[in-house]
Amino acid sequence: MGREIDETWIEEAVERYRRIEALQAKFDKAVQTVEVTVRSADGLVEVLVAADGTIRDVHINGPLQNRTNESVSRALREAVTAAGDAAAWARKKLQAETFGDYRELQ
What we know:
This protein is of the alpha+beta class. It contains two helices and three strands. 55% of the residues lie in helices and 16% in strands. Helix 1 (7-33) runs antiparallel to helix 2 (69-99).
């Protein structure tokens, strides 16, 4: 007994695949363009990071006189760690916004 090909199901599957590709392209572009700024706890270091994790810029706010190498290093570590967390948060938010209302294949 031969199986019949369900043309409608195939067309719907192809359309869903195209929609997923379009959403993925939108997401890929967004993670490269959305940026988040974070600061160390003491406000000395400010990092601008894209949602894809790329650090775009680093600023030192205020004078470095009277600061030890250790305190500057700590501020830098804090800001870079916060930047990684912020990038992950931004990706998760973008993913929810991009794919949140997409129905799963049934």
